[in-house]
Specification:
Length: 108
């Protein structure tokens, strides 16, 4: 089993679904896929446990989906400015680093 069609990424080894009445994990190793709940065999996927059909295979997220800039990264600039101005408490080392970062940004 490989991860999402990439041969260089190994897949999970065994299903970790807990079978309550039998007091053990499934540990099935054939066709195991990784889900948010952990590695699951075809019998214990989230849809299988709900009695729903599995979605058909198809394209996954676009290649740039995880590399798009986040608006949260912009807050780092404002945080540096707050630290550099002395309006936000920080260690002396962090204060000097923030001042250098803001001074560098003003120069460019």
């Amino acid at each position: 089993m490989t991860g999402r069609g990439r041969p260089d990424v190994p897949g999970p080894a065994e299903c970790t679904h807990w079978i309550g009445p039998e007091h053990h994990h499934c540990r099935f190793t054939h066709q195991v896929r990784l889900y948010l709940t952990g590695p699951r065999c075809p019998d214990h996927t989230p849809n299988a446990l709900r009695g729903r059909p599995e979605p058909p295979p198809g394209p996954s997220l676009p290649a740039g989906a995880w590399t798009t800039p986040s608006p949260l990264s912009d807050s780092a600039l404002f945080d540096d400015r707050a630290v550099a101005s002395g309006k936000r408490r920080s260690t002396p080392h962090t204060y000097r680093t923030a001042q250098a970062a803001v001074h560098h940004q003003k120069g460019t």
